[in-house]
Amino acid sequence: MVGATSWGLKRLCAAMDDPHPMPATMVIAAHPDDEVVGAGSRLLQLRQATFFHLTDGAPRDRHDAAMAGCATRLDYALERRRELVAALALAGIGPGQ
């Protein structure tokens, strides 16, 4: 197991032009944008990853939605999703991932 972990860390920390991409990986984050905070500098190496979020990123208190110019909590959640898709697209990661 240590060998596999060491190999994965080497792949994740490799130079951006490394010809050996990371294998398919799952990135699990609490809400949209946490994947950028946690793995932002390595997203180019995670182009085969699947991203899984535990929440839609919209708090139950509609105050944040209103502050972001959204009329409803759902509007805010959809905006968070659009932001996520746009951010990952910069790294070549598609919306289906």
Describe, in short, the structure shown.
With 97 residues, the chain is mainly alpha-helical. Helices cover 40% and strands 8% of the residues.
Q: Mean pLDDT, nearest integer?
A: 82
Taken as a percent bin, the fraction of beta residues is: 5-15%
The level of helicity is 40-55%
Question: What is the H/E order?
Answer: HEHEHH
**Number of helical segments?**
4
The gross shape turns out to be elongated
The spatial strand order of the largest sheet comes to: 1-2
* Biggest sheet character: 2 strands, parallel
Distance between the termini: 27 Å
Descriptive tags:
single chain; 97 residues; mainly alpha; two-stranded parallel ribbon; 8% strand; elongated
Can you offer a commentary on this structure?
With 97 residues, this protein is mostly helical. Helices cover 40% and strands 8% of the residues. The chain contains four helices and two strands. It has helices spanning 2-12, 34-39, 63-67, 73-89, and strands at 26-29, 50-53. Strands 1-2 form a two-stranded parallel ribbon. Helix 2 (34-39) links the parallel strand 1 (26-29) and strand 2. The longest helix is centred in the last third of the chain and has 17 residues, at 73-89. It is elongated. It starts with a helix and ends in an 8-residue tail after the last helix.
Strand and helix layout:
Elements: H1 2-12, E1 26-29, H2 34-39, E2 50-53, H3 63-67, H4 73-89
Parallel strand pairs: 1-2
